[in-house]
Amino acid sequence: MTRYLLRRLALAAGVLLAAYTVTFLVLYALPGDPVSIMYGGESSDVTPDQLDALRAEHGLDQPLVVQYLTQLGHALRGDLGDSVVSGQPVTQLLGSALPPTAQIAGLALLVAVLAGGSLAVVATATRSRRLSGFLLSLPPLGVAIPSFWFGLTLVQWFSFQIPLFPALGNQGFASAVLPAVTLALPTSALIAQMLSRSLLHTLREPYVDTALAKGAGRARVHLRHALRNAALPALTVTGLVVGGLLSGAVVTETVFSRAGIGRLTATSVSAQDIPVVQGVVLVAATVYVLVNLLIDVIYPLLDPRIVTGARRRVAPPTAPSPSPTQAHGSDADQAAARVAVPAGGTR
Amino acid sequence: MTAASDRLLTVADLAVTYRTRHGDVRAVRDVSLHVDSGETVAVVGESGSGKSTTAAAVVRLLAPAARIERGTIDLLGRDVASASQRELQAVRGLLVGLVPQDPTVSLNPVKRIGEQVAEVLRIHGLADRRVAAVEAVEALRRAGLSDPEIRARQYPHELSGGMRQRVLIAIALVAKPRLLVADEPTSALDVTVQRQILDHLDELTSQTSTGVLLITHDLGVAADRADRIVVMSRGRVVETGTPDEVLGAPREAYTKALLAAAPSLRGARRTPVASAPAADAPAALEVRGLVKDFPLPRSGGGGTLRAVDDVSFRVARGRTLALVGESGSGKSTTARLALRLAEPTAGQVLVGGDDVSHTRGSALRALRRQMQVVYQNPYSSLDPRWTVERIVAEPLRAFGVGDRRERAARAAELAELVALPASVLRRRPAELSGGQRQRVAIARALSVRPDLVVLDEPVSALDVSVQAQILDLLGELQRELGVTYLFISHDLAVVRQVAHEVVVLQHGRVVESGDVEHVFASPQHAYTAELLAAIPGTHRPLAGTAAGPARGGER
């Protein structure tokens, strides 16, 4: 397990380095002069001499490799440079923008998992075909609704018509509710879709019949046997949607005028504040990598078949399948093959 | 036993219908049968005969599309057919246990073995958590698992198929039910394991005078194990009686046909022995000292697993050599090495006398044209979205043989060769029966006129009567085209019918080889003898097996 974790951490570091390198290349090495983009633009009140001085100051007159290595060295020491617009250190900007975004993103994730999960469970457990059909039609709708519209509608209803929550700002928990719900909508729809599909599939597995044959009730079969097996693909998707939460924060924080990573992204991109943009990308990549690392750690806890460290095998080893393509012919596949055989009558 | 003649189960006039898009399918009609305590009743029939539906109805675990139209299922005075969900929950596990068909997928993969056995006792409130755990271990011990304490803490994927079936038997019997429903309990297992499991099941149920409803497609299993046999066909019971009555003197034509199609160790062989080839002619396929090692995970102690260990054999042109062995014996890996689909660790592969062990690139691709494969499962080895014509002509396209029109003509020719109607060419695999699909797979393999066809368990997924037809077809094709077969099978009865020579593999090693008649008549190695003895139907002779193969319509 330790070995597995160390390997995964090394991989995570690799991913971060790659993210940093790609952003660097995109922002600095592509055609266009960063300094004139940053300071010049249309307003030409900066003289060429001043631009040269700025280049020298930022080290931009150096060869690209030197620039890259210098910046990387600074980044490794925790110095991501200064904002071109405000002159504040990028780390400081990110540090103040992160907590409010973490608040709504965390809350959104919680809401999404609970809402999406219970929708999937109820939709697959109910005996009413109508209810199940209705519930299963919600996730596609949830994905289709544009979040800016949904956010504005929520503000209209729950701030103006029924003044429950503040419409704008960063003040306290109450102000985080509506943005979190807005952010949770597409995420919960994805989780619900994935989990209900997976549950429907799992409920047709032969081991569910085995459980029923033991005399287990529907609730027991659903929650104790099917859900844990069905949760695995949904968990993978959850790891992926965390990235979606960060990009969703751009829209949501703009709609609700909240400070946070999303707003910082929006403003720094429009102001072409390159160091800040690079910092934001790095933060997003870090979050993404950490969440997926966490999910990789959780996975073997849910499914013992996924081996991370020591592989114990007590049964006499059979010839392993060296590749999936062998599956047709391998002896171990006989069993699987037989399941499909009875066409009518048998299930 | 005092309860020896208790009536446990009475099924009367049962009718089950499946709703499909093409209208209702009446899977079971007017089925009546009964099981007394201490008695084993076997329900035999081919796929689609309704035998599994009958079993599922007894525990009310029918597919959602199925509905019980009529009839009663009386289980110790309770009508299961009309019981509520709550009543069913009280009956299942406690009064009737179920041993499902495929042990490899019938255990919850994320729960420990002990927990899954103990769950039955917990559900029915027969024991608290601690006692249930102890009793689960005891049930695993009774089911014949070694080290039950260790097994109880393991997960299903850590156990072999046979061990998992023992776990399922423990689950079915832990609450000491009066009736056991076993739906093809051993059809996914090797013959020797099958015998052990069935022996053990006999022992357990006779001790407790549990009644057994045994569903099987295998007449041999029914003959060996049942007190009474119920033969089903197309949803109806066609014949009932003791094994001696049903198998010794079958009254119904269907039973006779089923018996005739069953491969057996006695009775006529299908393939007349071809004239012995010239000894100096190069073999169609020869392998010398093949070795294949698979690396084991480093974390599991590392090392390698030797799947194939110094295997040598030669197949003469136009002859059939069978590779026989149980799961894990290395027979499929050997075939993959011979086909150059896997790289041998050591050894040589010779095709037509040429060493092709290290052939690569375009030469290897050309070699593929000489060697084609027919896989075990015709349900998964054909692309469901392609028409049969496209499937059959694919190797021709891959090798750039002919133009579109010529390929279509060749496809039609091949369909005729494998006795498929021309109309099949425009259809898709889903519209064909298992036997027809396997014919398509054979036609595909033959399309590029290969010298060698590797048949990897080509009939083990098919019903016996269809099996007989496919084996006949393979024999005819060999006589007509002079093609060489490498026939991989775990079924010795089938091997005896089609092969000229046999190679018996155990743990990757050749333990015995030679002429089929010779090896089967006087096996020299203990393992071969064990394999032969484990074949069901050897305890009680099947009548009618000397008759010719069934010619009935293929389903």
Keywords:
heterodimer, A: 347 residues, 13 helices, B: 555 residues, alpha/beta, 2 domains, 6-stranded mixed β-sheet, globular, disordered C terminus
Task: Describe it.
The complex is a heterodimer of chains A (347) and B (555). With 347 residues, chain A is mainly alpha-helical. Chain A folds into two domains: 2-76, no CATH class; 91-302, MetI-like (MetI-like fold, Orthogonal Bundle), CATH 1.10.3720.10. Chain A contains 13 helices and no strands. The model of chain A is unreliable at 309-347 (pLDDT under 50). Chain B is α/β, with parallel strands linked by helices and 555 residues long. Chain B folds into two domains: 7-261, 3-Layer(aba) Sandwich (Rossmann fold), CATH 3.40.50.300; 286-385 and 451-534, Rossmann fold (3-Layer(aba) Sandwich), CATH 3.40.50. Chain B is 35% helix and 25% strand. Chain B has 19 helices and 20 strands. Chain B has helices at 51-58, 85-91, 113-123, 129-142, 148-153, 161-173, 191-207, 219-225, 243-248, 253-261, 331-338, 361-370, 388-398, 404-417, 434-446, 464-481, 492-498, 516-521, 526-534; strands at residues 7-20, 23-36, 40-44, 66-75, 78-79, 96-99, 179-183, 211-216, 228-233, 236-241, 285-295, 304-315, 320-324, 346-351, 354-355, 371-374, 452-456, 484-489, 501-506, 509-515. In chain B, the strands form four sheets. Chain B has a six-stranded mixed β-sheet with strand order 6-7-8-3-9-10, sandwiched between helices. A six-stranded mixed β-sheet of chain B has the order 16-17-18-13-19-20, sandwiched between helices. Classes of the chains: A mainly alpha (347), B alpha/beta (555). Chains A and B meet through helix 9, helix 10 and helix 13 of A and strand 2, helix 1, helix 2, helix 3 and helix 6 of B. Chain B: Keywords: ATP-binding, Nucleotide-binding, Transport.
